[in-house]
Amino acid sequence: MQLITAILQPSALDPVKSALADAGITGMTVYDAKGHGAQSGTVEVYRSQKVHVEFLPKICIEVVVTDEAVDTVISVIREAAYTGQIGNGKIWASPVSRIVRVRTGETGEDAV
Predict the structure, then answer these.
(1) Alpha-helical segments (H) within 1-112
(2) Which residues of 84-107 are buried (b: 16+ CB within 10 A; e: fewer)?
(3) In the beta sheet, which residues pair with residue 60?
(4) Pairing of strands 42-46, 89-95
(5) Which domains does the chain show, CATH number per domain?
(6) Res 98: pLDDT
């Protein structure tokens, strides 16, 4: 099993959620995040003063999938979140050594 983590623009949430649902992936965790990559933040004007905003708003989506589904899920997320602009985000996969469904006690792939 793998944990797919995607740090994306907030505007990508609805397209990614819909694309994952179309691919049969319904379970996910989503939370707000802040950060920056190559763009290193932005400069905005607040009350006539220039303010450097170092950490930009992002969202983090986490999905646990079987090893066989990793490439498909990464591809689905990438295609749904792609705009061609800087700051689209990053996606990575991390191994999951154990998973347990709290309600039923199921483990492994049965718990995904």
Answers:
(1) 13-22, 70-81
(2) eeeebbebebeeeeeeeeeeeeee
(3) 7, 31
(4) unpaired
(5) 2-111 (3.30.70.120)
(6) 93
Separation of alpha carbons 46 and 89, rounded Å: 26
Which residues share a beta bridge with 42?
53
DSSP 8-class letter at 107: B
Query: Is-contact 63 8, C-beta < 8 A?
Result: no
As a whole number of angstroms, the distance between CA 5 and CA 45 comes to 33
Please name every residue paired with 45 in a beta bridge, in sequence order, or none if there are none.
50
Three-state SS at 93 = strand
The number of angstroms, rounded, from the C-alpha of 24 to the middle of its chain's C-alpha atoms is 17
76-111 pLDDT, tens per residue? 999 999 998 888 899 999 999 999 999 999 998 888
Q: Quick check: 30 and 7 in contact, CB under 8 A?
A: no
